[in-house]
Amino acid sequence: MHLAVTPRLLAATVGASVAAGFLAAPSGDAIEPTAAGASQEAAATPDTERLLEPTPGAAGIGDRYWPLDGNGGIDVQHYDIVNSYDFADGHLSGTTTLKVRATQALSSFQLDFLLPVSAVSVDGVDATYDRPHRHELRIAPTTPLVRGERFEVVVQYAGRPGPIRYARERNWAADGDEVVTMNEPHMAPWWFPSNDHPTDKARFDVTITGPATHRTISNGLLVDRVVAGDQATTHWRSSDPMVPYLAFFALGRYDVEHGVRNGLPWYVAVSRELPDPQRRRAMTSLERSPAVTAWLARRLGPYPFESTGGVAPSIDVGFALENQTRPTYSGSAATHLPTIVHELAHQWFGDSVSVRRWRDIWLNEGFATFMEAAYAEKHGGRSAQQWLRAQYDSRRGEASFWRLDLADPGRRHIFDEPVYLRGAMALQALRHRIGNRVFWATLQQWVAERQYGTGSVRAFRRHVEQVSGTDLDRFFRVWLTTPRAPTVTRANGLR
Predict the structure, then answer these.
(1) What is the pLDDT of residues 59-88, one digit of tens each?
(2) Which of 4, 323, 335, 387 is the most buried (most CB within 10 A)?
(3) Can you tell me the distance from the alpha carbon of 255 to that of 269, in angstroms, rounded to the nearest whole number?
(4) What are the CA-CA distances from residue 398 to residues 37, 204, 391 (Å)?
(5) Whole-angstrom Cα distance, residue 183 to residue 364?
(6) Which residues of 233-272 are buried (b: 16+ CB within 10 A; e: fewer)?
(7) How much is the pTM?
(8) 47 pLDDT tier (thresholds 50, 70, 90)
C-alpha cells in the first residue's frame, strides 16, 4: 500500500468472543494453516485420538492484532467467486465455491463474511449455519469432517456492502457508475466469504456480471467476457496462490491497453470517468508497468506471477494498493512513478512473500519504499545512501519518528509513516553495512525461498545474519526497536 495523503489509523477490532452452541473458545496460541498436501493420520493412537475427535474450528487464526481474522482448522485451496453487482441500489449477489482442506477433525468451522447468507452446503449437502459474530459465518456440516479431508463449501448471499462496517472500517468504494474493491488489511469479507488472513493463500476464479457498457478488471489473466443483452459476464483467473485481501475487482467504464513483454502478459486500465488530461497521463504512466516489473525482476529475481499491470479507477480512496498482478492507483497515484515502483515491488514483498502476522508489516511497506529509492538511484536520481543521509538529517530530532517499534507497531499504527520511511532507511543502512552484493543476494534468496509463503521480522533478521555471516543483533535493535535516532556510525550504516 502507498498512502496518497496521510497514513490511515486502523482502529481496533472487537475482541474474539465465545459464542454459545457448538463454538469452542479459540486458544491463545498462534494457529498456522497446515501446508497443502499433508496426509491424513493413518490410524488413531493414544497420542492422536484427541486430534481425530471432531471439534469446532477456532474463530481466529491467531493474529493478536485482529483476533477474528482468519479461522482455525481449515486451509482454503481455491475460491470460485461468481457475483453480480447492481449500480441502481448498490446490491451485490452471488455464490462462492471454496475448495478446502481440514487441518483438524471438525464438527464446525468458520469463514469471514459480512453479507447476508441465504444457503450453505458442504459437499452438496445443506449445512447448518449461523453468526456467532457479524463478521463470522459459522458452518456445521451434517457429517463431521476428518482431519486431512478435502471438501467443497458453497455459500449463496446477497446484500448491500456499502453501509457495512467491520473493525471501524467501511471499505466498500463505489458510486453510481463504478466500484472497486481495494483495501488493506480487510476487503474480502465485503464481497466473498473467505479465510481472511495472509497465512492462508489460495487460487482464485473471479466472475463478475455488470452492465455491458462497463468492463470488469481483476487479478491474473482474462479468461472470457460474454455479453447477454445489457449485461456482461467477465471471468478472470489467478493460477498463483493469493492472499484474500489482494483479490479485487473493478467494474466501470475503462480504457484498456494490453500486450506481452519478454513473455509476461500485461494489462492496464484507466477509468473514463477521470478528466481527460489525468486519464491520458495515467495511461502513459501505467504503460510503464511492464518495464518497471522487468527492472525489479533484475534486482529481486524472477517475477512471481502470471501477469502484471495496473488499474486507475476514478474513485479516490486516498491510497494505492498492491492487488496481486494488478495494483490499483486511486486519485493521482497512477501518474506518480515512485508509487508505481512501490506497488509493483509489493508483488515480491507482500504478495508473494506475505506477512506471517500483521505486526510484520515492515517486511511489506519498508521494503517497497526502499525499492523506490533503489529505482531512483539507477534512473538518474541521487544514490540511495545520499537519500538515507538526507532523510536521517531531516528527521534526526523528530522524536515521534523514532518512537514506533517497527517490529511490532500495533494495529493502529501499521500504516504510520515510520513503517514506510524509517523502514526503508533501515534497509539502505543494512545495504551500506553488509555491502551491495551481499545485500541484494540476501533479498533475492529471501523471496526465492519463501515464494508464495510468509515471513516474519524475526525470520528475516536470522536470514540476513546467515547469508551475510555477520552478527546484526545490535544493528536491527537500533533501527527497528530503539526509540531514538541511531548514532552516525559505520556499524549503523550511516558512515
Answers:
(1) 999 999 999 999 999 999 999 999 999 999
(2) 323
(3) 6
(4) 50, 45, 11
(5) 15
(6) bbbbbbebbbbbbbbbbbbbebbeeeeeeeebbbbbbbbb
(7) 0.90
(8) low
